Amino acid sequence: MKSYRDLEIYNLSYYLAIKIHKMSLKLPKYELYEEGNQIRRSSKGITSCIVEGYGRRKYKADFAKFIIYAHASCDETILHLNFIKDTHAFVEKEIQVLFDAYNKLGSKINKFIQYVEKEWK
């Protein structure tokens, strides 16, 4: 692994953050700046934490801590997707696709946390 760009969780989180950003700009005006801003920040926070953690990869505890933060931001993004779905601010089918993708990402991040904690040198 030469770069954080080689991490599957980085690539998936980046891709999903772009999808969230574009989706959030289509929210109704009353949600654009409230829920839209929150979900943009949490989705981009996942990627940011992965990159920052990778930058500290020589310190196993720091690396793991930032990947845990990424997992927490993933959970936060799922929460915001639920708010958007439950307030009917967006098409439910499109939200479900993102919801499923973020659940998959959360699982991958969790597995990566376990890898870092047990096997990272």
From TrEMBL:
Alphabetized InterPro entries for the sequence: 23S_rRNA-intervening_sequence, 23S_rRNA_IVS_sf
Protein name as it appears in the record: Four helix bundle protein
Source organism (scientific name): Candidatus Scalindua arabica
Native organism taxonomy: Bacteria, Pseudomonadati, Planctomycetota, Candidatus Brocadiia, Candidatus Brocadiales
